[in-house]
Amino acid sequence: MSTVAASIPVLRWAAQRAHLDDESLTARFRKWPLWLRGEAQPTLRQLEDFARLTHTAIGYFFLPAPPQLSLPVPDFRTLRDATLAEPSSDLLDTLYLCQQRQDWYREHARMHGLPALSFVGSASVKEAPEAVAQRLRDSLGLSTEARRQLPTWTEALRQLIAKAEDAGVIVMVSSVVGSNSHRKLDVAEFRGFALADALAPLIFLNGADSKAAQMFTLAHELAHVWLGATGISNTQAGEVPERHTERWCNQVAAELLMPMESLRAAYDPRMPVPEEIQRLAHEFKVSTLVALRRLFDAGFITQDALWQHYREEQERLRRLPERAPGGDFYRSLSARVSKRFARAIIASTLEGLTSFPDAFRMLGVRKTATFYEAARELGVMA
Fold it and tell me: For the chain, which domains are there?
């Protein structure tokens, strides 16, 4: 059987990006060690299998060296290590899919004469974060007191997503690439991104993160939309990002979720800090790290106390068991692709304006029966 001369540096690069070790690759490709030493070459079918396994374009294997891949959007992340310097195939594929969905929705909005959203790009980093947070609160119809009455972080996140979508923002939440449960997204690589657009602003949240962390990321990315600043973020509450835009978006997010006036009224100085941040986090439906940072912002704790408790709380959070995935498929579908987007593309397909293959691809479904059931669950058809 004929073989092909695949580039050894690119083979190594593809395996490393896919987090595949030599032992597992040798189990699947018996001559893997020989390929790396140049003593054997893969067949075309083997190379195609390897490309699919590593989510690598097959043409790359004929290059003398690995390609220099870059993000298609501005990168606001803090590069803590070299691994973030090059985006993973999981992140890139998620971005490309969301851009395709946004392009579709933009054309849908134009076709139906939907108005441009005046809040997109209406803010500036020169403005006080408190003022912009209030405008966000007014535009979304948010009430801090109403959120404090909700029993869980899940309900609070669901409410915030619904408010954003009602205002015209497409919000997608997923812990995997598309609908592929074998391609899990890494929170260490990114927590979310915003694709600002006057007709189709889109926010993606990494669903592998905790609900409390997703709340902060959503608020942070909403600030990006108000700025009109497309970009990817990995910001975490309590940290102080290097970039001014990220610091400003963090400040807007913190004020949106935990207004200083409400915090001052709720704070109990008699409580030890670890217990107090737990209580405040539950009351405001934020993470304990957000609550801790806000105590410092309010002047209730010193900077030394902030970082001491921050390290202790991070260690406590690391020891918590991972949450189990699952849930109702159709609710998960509307969260993964956004209820606003799902309803629009399903209706467009039923009207004959969008092809079924295109709708299936962007929704991440394979069966016609699943599509029609989703249409019924989302109220698009009876």
Answer: 8-62 (1.10.260), 82-257 (no CATH), 329-377 (no CATH)
